[in-house]
Design a protein that fits this description.
Blueprint (H helix, E strand, L loop, with lengths): L16 H13 L11 E2 L5 E5 L7 H4 L8 H11 L20 E5 L12 H6 L1 H10 L5 E5 L1 H10 L14 E4 L3 E6 L4 H5 L5 H16 L3
Parallel strand pairs: 2-3, 2-4, 4-6
Antiparallel strand pairs: 1-3, 5-6
């Protein structure tokens, strides 16, 4: 029986014509790929919500799990495991047995965009799902935004003006409902290869986010 659409996820969404057409193309060329809007991973009531940009063509778009099967997930899952938030340091496939502890992973855009670049209109159209994710984040919870676009998408989903919250690696921002927004550079291959971020830098920010959860009532 096919999954039913919810505020968190609509598996048959075709709201964005360009993304829907690209998924159709990928599905025709690669029948073994997930090639659909990618659902979030982890318990909906987790106190840490990690928000990325969008599924990678040969990563989440292939496997059906955020940050799984491509380079961008390597730093993320290794860091989550070292922080006690994931049961294994690698995420390989949806059936690999990996479990998250008090952590959930989502994306600002649920469908893979051409050239890994969603348009502002596509980010806005998908914001309804991110808003639903944030509605479930409990008081004292933390959002870890991977990259400037995810940072802005989170703030817009909350009805906040992004200009009031400057993005910066390691920056902390207080949010309504006794919650926090913590920023990190994205764990993409490009950012790693250019030296913008490495495992130690990411782990420091992730530890900060985890410690903020530890102080929650």
């Amino acid at each position: 029986m096919p999954a039913m659409p919810t505020a968190l996820h609509d598996p048959a969404c075709r709201r964005c014509p360009r993304l829907a057409a690209f998924l159709d193309q990928v599905r025709d060329e690669r029948a073994d790929y997930f090639a659909a809007p990618v659902p979030s991973f982890g318990a909906p009531d987790a106190r840490l919500l990690v928000v990325g940009l969008a599924p990678g063509l040969h990563g989440a778009n292939r496997t059906g799990r955020p940050f799984t099967g491509d380079f961008a997930g390597q730093l993320l899952y290794r860091g989550l495991h070292d922080a006690g938030l994931a049961s294994a340091p690698q995420s390989l496939a949806v059936d690999d047995g990996l479990m998250l502890t008090d952590c959930r992973i989502a994306n600002a855009v649920k469908c893979v965009p051409p050239a890994n670049k969603p348009t502002p209109a596509e980010i806005s159209a998908c914001n309804v799902h991110l808003r639903a994710e944030l509605d479930l984040l409990p008081a004292g919870g933390v959002v870890l935004a991977l990259g400037h676009i995810a940072h802005q998408a989170v703030l817009r989903a909350l009805g906040e003006k992004p200009a009031r919250f400057a993005f910066g690696h390691g920056a902390r921002h207080r949010l309504p409902g006794q919650r926090w927004l913590v920023d990190s550079y994205h764990t993409s291959r490009y950012n790693v290869q250019t030296g913008r971020i490495d495992q130690a830098m990411f782990d420091t920010v992730l530890t900060d986010a985890r410690d903020l959860i530890g102080t929650a009532p």
